[in-house]
Amino acid sequence: MLNREMSRRVDEIAVNEIGIPSLILMENAGRSCAECLLNWSAVDNHRELSVLILCGPGNNGFVIARHLALASCNVRVMLFQEIEKYAGDSRVNLDVLRQLGIEIDRFDPDWSASETSEEFAKVGTQPTTWIVDALLGTGASGALRPPIAKAIVAANKLSVKKLAVDLPTGLDCDSGGASEPTFRADVTCTMVDEKIGFQNGDARLFTGTVVVVGIGVPMDLESLKTD
């Protein structure tokens, strides 16, 4: 299992010691999460998928969006910061989405609770069938603040399937403690290994089924893991 610092070290070792470009790590992680969602949907017999992806400053969500769109899903990306603030690998993948014509919107912090729910309930002209939480990563801790807290409340109220990337937003990576609110996922696609906080019995109320996905790191991680 990995804690917050170990998760950071995995990426650091992969990039700085193994020499894997961070863009490739992001691609592998996003593709794996998209495949997880598609596999999970096949079990539930969803014929047409309409996926809303909530994207924070990272972001693997852009790669997920591209792969789902290429798999003929309806996709809408909701940004939680200005486009101008995205840089590096995130900006590369965001620009690809823009070139592909994938629907991209900015979350409006002035939306009321009902307006937020209405926005989250649609992807283009279709009703949302999945919400993907790609808002915050393992480094986040403490209580959620607006506008992310408002978004999580709205997402949790919708009767759609929900997928969390790495861990649900609001859940502490190390302790497994849940802030109010915390994203309630049906499935969590977590990178490399489960997070140590998942051992907290209450954490499963928010992670749902945990699926460990690879990011293409060809190394022995036993020195980083903990029992």
Q: Can you put this structure into words, describing what you see?
A:
This protein is of the alpha/beta class. The chain is 37% helix and 18% strand. The protein has helices spanning 4-18, 22-44, 61-70, 88-100, 113-120, 148-157, 204-207; strands spanning 50-55, 74-79, 103-106, 122-123, 126-127, 130-134, 161-165, 187-191, 209-213. The strands form two sheets. Strands 3-2-1-6-7-8-9 form a seven-stranded parallel beta sheet, covered by helices on one side. The protein has a two-stranded antiparallel ribbon with strand order 4-5. The chain is globular. The protein starts with a helix and ends in a 14-residue tail after the last strand.
Shape: globular
How much strand?
15-25%
Kindly provide the radius of gyration, computed on alpha-carbon positions and rounded to a whole number of angstroms. Answer: 16 Å
Which spans have pLDDT < 50 for at least 5 consecutive residues?
none
Q: What count of helical segments does DSSP give?
A: 7
Structural class category: alpha/beta
Task: Report strand order across the widest sheet.
Answer: 3-2-1-6-7-8-9
Query: How helical, in percent, are the residues?
Result: 25-40%
How much is the average pLDDT? 90
Distance between the termini: 6 Å
Largest sheet: 7 strands, parallel
Strand and helix order: HHEHEHEHEEEHEEHE
List how many beta strands DSSP finds: 9
